[in-house]
Structure formats: structure tokens, C-alpha cells
Design a protein that fits this description.
The protein is of the alpha+beta class. The chain has 9 helices and 12 strands. A hairpin with a 3-residue loop joins strand 6 and strand 7. It is found in: Cell membrane; Membrane.
Length: about 325
Amino acid sequence: MIRWQNLWRFIPLFGLMMLLLTGCGDQTISALKPRGPVARDQLFLMKLSFGIMLLVVVVVFVLYLYVLVRFRKKKGDKDIIPKQVEGSHTLEIIWTVIPIILLLILAVPTVQYTFKLLEDHRDNKEALHVKVTAHAFWWQFEYPELGIATAQDLVIPTNKKIAFELTASDVKHSFWVPSLGGKMDTNPGNTNVYYLQADEVDVFKGKCAELCGASHSLMDFKVKSMDQADFDQWVAKMKTPASVPADAQKGEQIFKDNCLSCHAVNAQGLGAGPNLNGFASRELVAGILPHNDESLKQWISDPQSVKPGNKMPQVGLKDDQINDVIKYLNSLKLK
């Protein structure tokens, strides 16, 4: 019993820890720090709903405290039952009308923004059309009008609507870039549409927001926003075939014999695995590991140890073959 009674001493410690933890995080993965118009509209709705709830809580507590103080029993008072107000039509109208008004204040902009943010911009010539396909546990990005495809790194121009067409190849996933806007489900056999837009040049973190399997928490991706000129250069580089140096050609052949059936290395190729065009220019391996030879060796030799449940088979290459493949992959740079 004494032990439980002493727990109150930890309350200040818990409060301090909570205060410190509120400072942790990443501004490129926070819905509370919007970096685009969609995210700002959604933050406005969050603030509006929070403000209404806070107003209701404050009013209820003020009335509660007023009643406690105003009608408390004072010393010398007799046991008198206060005047009963049950059946007061005035009060009933007041506490019925006020919630209706508050709901309307919240519902009108919510419905308005819902229809606005779910507009289909795929036919908008001013927007960039991107097809997103979620796999276990990686992301595929296609640019139909530009004739290119990539994986894990979504590259977009700033100050331009990005019209998304979202689906999944296996199970239900959910596409979410917190700094740019809310999540949207990706369902097998079904297509969802919405749009996002980035205001500034930066790299934003994306997540899968739907429990989809053993490596759900590792199903990350990045969104790189660029100026339009830089984006155009990136597109041109993606369409330019990589030149393989002589010392990497042995690894290229091993890759073709063992990996090419799943992994494309050209601008438009799609397969069971991620498109590796420009792979050497990516910052991460498998979306989560730092891009270095050690990470590549770990991923190629035993992919299940990195992302349990993923569909990449254990090819069974020898160490020298893996090293040759790594040398080839490191040559796939965007020139």
C-alpha cells in the first residue's frame, strides 16, 4: 500500500518527460507544420474542431464551478431543496440550439473542404499526374505523361498540383505525407484520387498509414520537391540510359541473370520489384537503410532480416557475386 501511495511523487517526473518529448520529432513529417495548401486547409479544420471542443469544455466547467460556488451549503443554512427547473422550455431550447449551431459551424467548412480536396485533377493540364501503386512493402510511382517510373523516391515540382491515382497490388495500404496533406487508402482493384502540393524545395517523409503486414512500420518513402527547372532536368536524366563502366559489367551480367526478371533499370520499366533506374542517386536502400555497400550487401544476401515478409527472394549469390552486383548498382547514377 505504501508503494502505491508514493507513486504521486513520479507525477512531476512524468510531466517533465512529456514536456521534453513534445520537442521531439521531424518538421518534414508533422501535420501540425503544413508545407502545402492541402495541409494548411486540413490544419484549419483541426484547429476549428479543437477550438469548438475547447469552448464547450470551458463553458461546461465554468457553469459547473459557478453552481458549486453559488449554491454550496453555507454554515447555518437549512436543508432546503433548490428550485427545480425540470421541464423548462427555455433551457431545453438553449441547450438544443447551441449544439446545432456549433455542429453547423464545424460541418459546413468540413464538407466544403472534403469535396475540394478530393477533386480529380488527372485531366488538369496544369497538374502533374502520378500513379501510385503500393506493394508489400514498397511504393511504385509512375508518371504516365512523362513516360518514366521510379520507386521509393517521389519527385515533384513545387507550386504545382500533383494529381494522384492510387491503388495497391496486394493488400490494403495507405499513402500519407503528413507535411503535405492527409492520408488516402490504396486498395487492390480500386482507384482513389486526390491531390497534394508542395510550397517549398525540401524532402518530406511519407509513411504507410494502414497496418499491412509484418513490415508495415518500415514501409517508408520520400517526397522530393524541386523547382520546375530542376524537375525537368531530373526527368531528362531519368530518360538517359546509365553508362556502365567496364569494372561493373560483370555485376551487370549477374544482375541480368538473377534480378532483371523483377527489377527494371530503364525509364519506363515496371516489375514485381522496384524500378532501379537511377538507384545510385537514392539516399536509402529498401527505403530505410543508409545507402552504402554494407546495407546493400545485407539487403541482397538476406532481405527478410531487413523487411520481414517482403516478397524479394533470397537469391543465393556468393559474396564475390554480391560485391559485383553492388558495384553495378552503384553505377546506376543519374548523369
